[in-house]
Amino acid sequence: MDENDALTPLHSSHVKAMRMATVLGAVPFVVGSLVLEIADILPTGVFIVPVLLAAAFIVIRVPLRRYMARGYAMGDDRLRVVRGLWFRSDTVVPFGRVQHIDVHQGPIERAYGLATLTLHTAGTHNASISLPGLADADARAMRETIRAQIRRDTM
Amino acid sequence: MSQPAAPAETGERRTEPVGLVLRAIGGLRQLIPVVIALALALRNEGSWLLAAIPLALMLFGASVFFTWLQWHRLTYRVGAEDIRVESGVLSRAARSVPYERIQDVSLEQGPLARLFGLVEVRFETGAGGKDELTLAYLKEAEGERLREVVRDRKDGVLVSSGRAGAEADEPGAEVLFAMGPRRLVTFGLFEFSLAVVAVVAGAVQQFDFLLPFDPWDFDEWQHRLAGPGAWLSGLGQTAQIVGGVIAAGSLLVLGFATGLVRTALRDWGFVLERTAKGFRRRRGLLTRTDVVMPAHRVQALAYGTGIVRRRFGWHGLKFVSLAQDAGAASHDVAPFAKWEELEPIARAAGFAAPTEDLDWHRASARYRVDSALMAGAIAGAIALAALIVLSATGGASPLLALIPLGIALPLAAWQWFLWRFERHTLDDSQVYARHGWLAPRTDVASRIKLQSVEIAQGPIARRRGYATLHLGLAGGKLAIAGIPLARAQELRAAILQSITTQDFSRIN
């Protein structure tokens, strides 16, 4: 696997899942601004309009861009995980250094049939590398592949 | 290591009963504040001693009884594959630590334990701190025996997985590094520390109610100087200057004395040996520690030095490994040595020392320029804020805003020095990285023992084409900042090539 290898994009539902999570995160702010609106401190719309605009931006635009920035490449003996919009990070974990593997599903992920694959290494930096937004079946298949690889190497 | 592993023991053992005395004394120490509180509470109640003494004795008896109960309920067993410890009075806990997971075994002796010939045995697994398995107290011989057992079992595992960590041809231990009293004194002088001043100040703050006056009240001091201390302020300027010099001098003496005492306590009789199975380090004046680390567990070397000691050619060497050393992340193997003395230690651990003729690379000049500009921008912002505030309030001359700007200049110069001094390189088996300028630190990591490789770029770094390379190291951190992206990718490809050829469980 070299640097020019095409990255595999994450499952397209990942955008929806991220949007859902952002919507849930934005709810308190919208409610808060509604309360301020009702309290009638300043002219109508001073709070709710900017909050709704900002919420619309981070719900519609940001998850899409984050999705575009993410990707992974599964090699014969290593996994490459790329992520980050502003702060880009491009990590490669050789299977031979994986200590254990987690497949995790949060409630939102489960609703969209997604899962997060986490590889744990012995390193202090990057002790665990997570790859969210995989189809559940894919994540499990990847776990099996990596595990088989570890077992073969150690035998 | 050809000797067969000893047959598994089935018997359960308890720790040494004499250790109960030590624990009781430890419990006594905890009781002292309780007893003092009791005495204070009861002192107005007539013949309070009559009540306090039986109460204190009862408390002591209860603490001894619980200690005994704990001791009685704690058993350990040295099995064929693991060490098992069962403990707990009300809720039982059973713990099993497999031999392959034990990073090193250390023996520790406090002053009292030395008197009784007892040791505290600690099995380091990389879990860190309180989670580590400890057995306190065992007889010295039992501690040694346990360590031998663990070592033999571990070697058995190693042989079967096809990698020998150490050359088995040396029967005796070879002393790699030792520090005599002379070296210790030199070392202590460089360990100058004013920590004790801070401690005294802290203690004064804590216990100021015990002093007959308030040490933090300026008026009180003035009053004292006006009264019985008037002769002090009346002595004239020369005497005050002399007094100041004496004060500064005593501060210096105090700093050096602290350094000497601390160093002597920690590193007295420092001996590092290369035994057939690993490295063995013994040190300590009152509390003696005896640590053995297998050579193949060493993940990386860290060479360090200090601003002043560097001028005299003194360096320190640490081993980075998953096990912890007295709370610190890495093992001190030669805290204070000449460069030539470190070379054999590195070689014994299977590492090569960094040399000048390697193909060293610097960080990207753009990275340094950006960092300098960043420092300048921050200082400029502070200066601007100060200017606005000072001219608005008129509290002080607005020219004071020049001070943060003045600080920006050395910060920029710092980046230039860092550009000259920070460097990294790669050879067939190792990664080298030097950080810092005045007190540089050089990390040497084995390529095959790295865990992961990450290229990280912030928004500025992406536009300017440089990146930071983070290397996953077991028990430590290793990063090379601000190198050109192409170089980072080249390094990553090379390192990954080495990692994937060897599985982690083979090298550990």
How is this structure best described in words?
The complex is a heterodimer of chains A (155) and B (508). Helices cover 47% and strands 26% of the residues of chain A. With 155 residues, chain A is α+β, with helices and mostly antiparallel strands. In chain A, a hairpin with a 6-residue loop joins strand 5 (114-121) and strand 6 (128-135). Chain A is elongated. Chain B is of the alpha+beta class and 508 residues long. Chain B has a 7-stranded antiparallel beta sheet with strand order 6-5-4-10-9-8-7. Chain B has a 7-stranded antiparallel beta sheet with strand order 13-12-11-17-16-15-14. Chain B has a 3-stranded antiparallel beta sheet with strand order 1-2-3. In chain B, helix 5 crosses helix 9. The longest helix of chain B has 31 residues, at 237-267. Chain B is globular, with a radius of gyration of 29 Å. Mean pLDDT of chain B is 81; it is low at 1-8 and 157-170. Classes of the chains: A alpha+beta (155), B alpha+beta (508). The A-B interface holds A 2-3, 77-78, 86-94, 96-97, 99, 121-127, 129, 150, 153-154 and B 126, 322, 450-459, 462, 470-479, 489, 492-493, 496, 499-500, 502-506, 508. Strand 3 (88-94) of chain A pairs antiparallel with strand 18 (450-457) of chain B.
Q: What topology does this entry show?
A:
The complex is a heterodimer of chains A (155) and B (508).
Chain A: H1 13-39, H2 48-69, E1 71-74, E2 78-83, E3 88-94, E4 98-104, H3 107-111, E5 114-121, E6 128-135, H4 136-154
Antiparallel strand pairs in A: 1-2, 2-3, 4-5, 5-6
Helix pairs in contact in A: 1-2
Chain B: H1 19-42, H2 48-73, E1 75-78, E2 82-87, E3 93-98, E4 104-109, H3 111-116, E5 118-124, E6 133-139, H4 140-160, E7 174-178, H5 181-190, H6 195-206, H7 218-226, H8 230-233, H9 237-267, E8 271-275, E9 278-283, E10 288-293, E11 300-304, E12 314-325, E13 328-338, H10 339-348, E14 361-362, H11 365-393, H12 402-421, E15 423-426, E16 430-435, E17 441-446, E18 450-457, H13 459-464, E19 466-473, E20 476-484, H14 485-499, H15 504-507
